[in-house]
Design a protein that fits this description.
92 residues, mainly alpha, 3 helices, 0% strand
């Protein structure tokens, strides 16, 4: 009856067999869940870091383009004409 040849007696009761199978499956699920737990924290930290980066980029976009940060930067650093632009070629 036992085709595996491992010397284990085969249970005569089908309900007992189903209970043993359920226990084995529950044990395997528990082992899988414990094995995946260390990566859950890393996944949450990386998601949080990604959200912080996106929010920082949105705040920078708002400051530069919408609130006038670019005009403020241009006002502080006016474009200066270079003296070589007005010089005539060949003049001393």
């Amino acid at each position: 009856m036992n085709s595996n040849g491992d010397g284990k007696p085969e249970p005569a009761d089908p309900e007992k067999t189903l209970r043993l199978l359920e226990l084995e499956l529950m044990h395997k699920r528990a082992v899988r869940q414990q094995a995946g737990t260390p990566y859950r924290g890393l996944r949450a930290a990386s998601l949080f870091f990604f959200v912080v980066i996106v929010l920082g980029a949105l705040m920078a976009f708002y400051y530069v383009f919408i609130s006038g940060g670019l005009e403020e930067f241009r006002a502080r650093n006016p474009v200066q004409a270079s003296p070589t632009e007005n010089a005539t070629p060949g003049a001393p």
